[in-house]
Amino acid sequence: MTVDLFLLQLFTGLALGSIFVLVALGLSLIFGLLTIVNFAHGQFFMLGAYVGAFVLGMTGNFWLSLIAVPLAVGAVGMLCERFLVRPLYGRGIDYPLLLTYGLGLILLETVRILAGTQGIPFNTPPVLSGAADLGFFFFPKYRLFLIAITAIILVALWLFLERTSYGLIIRAGARDQEIVQVLGVDVGRVWLVVFGVGVAIAGLAGVLAAPIRGVFPEMGVPVLVEAFVVTVVGGMGSLLGAVVAGLAVGVTVSFTSFFYPEMATLSMFLLMALVLVFRPRGLFGRAGLLG
Amino acid sequence: MLTVKDLNAWYGRSHILQGIGLEIAAGEAVCMIGRNGAGKTTTLRSIMGLVQRRSGTVLFEGTDIIALPTHRRFAMGLAYVPEERRIVGGLSVLENIRLGLVASPNLKREGEIIDRVAETFPRLKERLSQQADTLSGGEQQMLAIARAMVSDPKLIMLDEPSEGIMPVLVDEMFELFARMKARGITILIVEQNVERALQLADRAYVVDQGEIVHSGDAKALLADREIQERYCSV
Fold first, then answer.
1. Is the CB of residue B80 less than 8 Å away from at least one CB of chain A?
2. Can you list the domains of chain B with their CATH numbers?
3. ipTM of the complex model
4. How far apart are CA A105 and CA B186, in angstroms?
5. What does the angle CA A247 – CA A205 – CA A252 come to, to the nearest 5 degrees?
6. Can you spell out the DSSP letters for B159-195?
7. Tens place of pLDDT for every residue, chain A, 291 residues?
8. Which residues in chain A are closer than 8 Å to B71, comparing Cβ atoms?
9. CA atoms of B11 and B19, how far apart (whole Å)
10. Chain-chain contact of B88 with A179 (C-beta, under 8 angstroms)
11. Cross-chain CB nearest to A184 (options B71, B95, B98)
12. Inter-chain residue contact A179 with B89, CB threshold 8 Å
């Protein structure tokens, strides 16, 4: 394998991993704070792609859809938290799990009814089509853009968590909810925002993935599985874990599909099994989070 | 300032508080003493709204707060420093102090307030950027008190502040409480260190099996060995 081929596979893996990172990030954020395993997460991803396709169809502006999607999907997520998830807090992990699973089915069927079962086209925006010359090799511009925008979202999220009062509350709340309440914080409102932000990122990932993966009702199903693999590898509830594991899984899949394409999908599960054998709590997870 | 009447609380099926009643006037320091498991901590937690199943009346400045969520009680001027301090690990000392400010109007005066903390707690001043869980037990307790004080509460509830802390620091801490009291902050303290608590307090309540069994002047109780032995010895 030559250097340029190696780099090409690496970049392909990072682009693929970017989508994993974004989806897993929201899943992990929600789990870390609300102790809710959001089984509807993949459907929010799908919803993002559809809202994006709709906005793109109406306005012809891809950038506008990147702004509209997280807002719209985040709003739907907040409504779901407020009226469906909230009554289940403090009831054990299985209640919200069943609820979000059912919510996912409802979202899926709703989209099938409204937009058809066929799927709809989503063209790569003209500015980002074609390949860029990176010196060693040519690389699709859109995938480069994916890596860049993921990096921007990560930096923004990091600044939000590390530099704002709201971020401080979220970081503290993930470790000790009660003390945050004692210090005057209405945690219900914080959970609402966290759920909204988590699914908004999933929606954004959906529209970002659309030019590569296409837009169809079932697109969220494999994504949920991939996101779970990433969260397990990275450690449930760990944001750093979601980033590192997301990229690692992307690169693993990318290299396996080059050397042994039949094993590409399986490779991520093998990676997960390996991590679980040697580090059951995941790379950055805390032990006994559900204890 | 605080009137508690017929306060009942349950954990699961255990009926922990069985009609607690107490009264605290503004500016007073009151202590609660009694054996482990008597219901002292549960009383404080109920006043702060942290016990799910509760009934009775808790009047704070004339308003019944029994049904209010914890954060609303904070907004009214109640502060609680829980047992075992509950410092948030993974955050720095400064971030823990800021956590006490995020929901308070004092957030606007953050700089000034942090300076004030540094002045009152010289031990914390040198360690502001340090990870909070690397502090010693006594320093963590100071941090927990500082975190509760930055919002300028009217009433502060302290749960076993001297537990597991070096004697030198216990002295320092009780001097701090005396200064807080002198500044007009109302204090409700639960302590195993009965002598210390009674010296600080104006009045005292003795709790046993979820009920108030004795109340009166703190100094008189300090002299009353019999009651102390009967209800406070382990």
1. yes
2. 2-86+152-232 (3.40.50.300)
3. 0.92
4. 55
5. 20
6. ESTTTT--HHHHHHHHHHHHHHHHTT-EEEEE-S-HH
7. 788 889 899 999 999 999 999 999 999 999 988 888 999 999 999 999 999 999 999 999 999 999 999 999 999 999 999 999 999 987 888 899 999 999 999 999 999 999 999 999 899 999 999 998 888 788 999 999 999 999 999 999 999 999 999 999 999 998 889 999 999 999 999 999 999 999 999 999 999 999 999 999 999 999 999 999 999 999 988 899 999 999 999 999 999 999 998 988 899 999 999 999 999 889 988 765 543
8. 181, 184-187
9. 15
10. yes
11. B71
12. no
- The amino acid present at B144, given as its one-letter code, is A
Q: Measured on CA atoms in the order A44, A50, A55, A56, is the torsion positive or negative?
A: positive
- The span from the CA of B97 to the CA of B114, in Å, is 8
Distance CA A167, CA A159 (A): 8
Q: Are strands B211-217 and B203-208 parallel, antiparallel or unpaired?
A: antiparallel
What are the distances in angstroms from CA B71 to CA A165, A185, B75, B101, B157? Answer: 16, 5, 6, 13, 15
Question: In one letter, which amino acid is A20?
Answer: F
Q: What stretch of H or E contains B97?
A: helix B93-99
Length of chain A: 291
B84/B185 Cα distance (integer angstroms): 22
Residue type, B225: R
Lookup: tokens for A149? 């925008």
